[in-house]
């Protein structure tokens, strides 16, 4: 994995300094940093980081609420905290953070946590794209099936024959098959409305 662009937020300046130095020493970029939860959102819009490393307890807006909003912006989050409360962990899980580090943070834990979190986030993005692709394929198959059924009924032929005829029409008109299906379906809807 190459370098990551990291948005760093912790209300303790010394903690931020230590983490920034470690991240840059390991070849990553700290694109922005702040100690205020509200500022994180503006910085995220301006810098578009690969990932955010956020303290939970910050002024303005806590890290969990910020993580929830960053998720909507397509930015995965790893949380850091000195508080080991079950309620915080449950909230963090519900908003979909990708990692959770307890303070005091060991330097050697930061990079693996960020890399694993970013890798899982990428996996989820790829899965979402595949799901969308499958949904589109299913929708296209439904459209073809409906068009075949309409064409078969209108012409008194089997769906198999209707499929062949629709393919012929697409080839001869040099139009995509789904465009022909749309035309058949719309024409049928127009007929139904005029009855």
UniProtKB/TrEMBL annotation:
The keyword Phosphoprotein applies. InterPro entries: ANTAR (IPR005561), CheY-like_superfamily (IPR011006), Sig_transdc_resp-reg_antiterm (IPR008327), Sig_transdc_resp-reg_receiver (IPR001789), WH-like_DNA-bd_sf (IPR036388). It holds the Pfam family ANTAR. It comes from the Bacteria. The modification 4-aspartylphosphate is found at residue 55. Keywords: Phosphoprotein. GO terms for biological process: phosphorelay signal transduction system. This is Stage 0 sporulation protein A homolog. It comes from Sinanaerobacter chloroacetimidivorans. The lineage of its organism: Bacteria, Bacillati, Bacillota, Clostridia, Peptostreptococcales.
